[in-house]
């Protein structure tokens, strides 16, 4: 295992999931995955695990879908007490290790924090986070001090319908959205 210190404001990594709790007595851990599909998190042979301000690089020995979740056995984690020591820690990956996307595709972490404007130029706020629904992804846009109000809005992530423009360089997006919704 390789360890190094990072600051909590490090923006070179993205959180892929969380090691939640031990699974059995042989060092396996339950994983809460933010990837879609959830077992895609197992496609990365090494993870960075954050404990406080320390990141530890650790290899996956094996992992699998288990019921409604994912379980994993990590290198050097051979018993329940070692697994307990890693419970409730974040799983990170360097951003540059993520697969490259096609034009018009975005990772959620790239959209979070973007400033959102209507087509009329009204500032609605910033993208706080996104979540999945059965029909489409949804952006949570929270009004900030420069926005037209402090409201929180749920906007469907529908490119070419609701999402008119995304400018990654400027950190802004334009939406077809009535501010009164």
From TrEMBL:
Keywords: Chaperone, Cytoplasm, Ribosome biogenesis, rRNA processing
Keyword Chaperone annotated: yes
Subcellular location: Cytoplasm
Start and end residues of each RimM N-terminal domain: 16-96
Residues of the PRC-barrel domain: 104-176
Pfam families in alphabetical order: PRC, RimM
InterPro entries: PRC-brl_dom, PRC_barrel-like_sf, RimM, RimM_N, RimM_N_sf, Transl_B-barrel_sf
Functional description taken from the UniProt entry: An accessory protein needed during the final step in the assembly of 30S ribosomal subunit, possibly for assembly of the head region. Essential for efficient processing of 16S rRNA. May be needed both before and after RbfA during the maturation of 16S rRNA. It has affinity for free ribosomal 30S subunits but not for 70S ribosomes.
Subunit structure: Binds ribosomal protein uS19.
Family stated for the protein in its record: Belongs to the RimM family.
Domain description: The PRC barrel domain binds ribosomal protein uS19.
Name of the protein: Ribosome maturation factor RimM
Organism: Vreelandella neptunia
Lineage, broadest ranks: Bacteria, Pseudomonadati, Pseudomonadota, Gammaproteobacteria, Oceanospirillales
Name of the gene: rimM
């Amino acid at each position: 295992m390789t360890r190094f210190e990072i600051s909590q404001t490090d923006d070179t990594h993205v959180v892929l999931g969380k090691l939640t709790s031990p699974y059995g007595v042989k060092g396996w851990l339950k994983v809460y995955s933010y990837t879609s599909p959830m077992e895609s998190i197992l496609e990365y042979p090494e993870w960075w695990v954050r404990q406080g301000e320390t990141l530890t690089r650790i290899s996956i020995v094996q992992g699998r879908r288990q019921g409604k979740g994912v379980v994993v056995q990590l290198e050097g984690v051979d018993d329940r007490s070692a697994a307990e020591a890693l419970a409730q820690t974040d799983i990170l990956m360097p951003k540059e290790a993520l697969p490259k996307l096609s034009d018009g595709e975005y990772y959620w972490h790239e959209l979070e924090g973007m400033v959102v404007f209507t087509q009329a130029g009204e500032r609605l706020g910033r993208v706080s986070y996104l979540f999945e629904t059965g029909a489409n992804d949804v952006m949570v846009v929270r009004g900030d001090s420069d926005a037209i109000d402090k409201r929180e809005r749920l906007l469907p992530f529908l490119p070419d319908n609701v999402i008119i423009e995304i400018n990654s360089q400027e950190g802004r997006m334009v939406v077809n959205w009535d501010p009164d919704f």
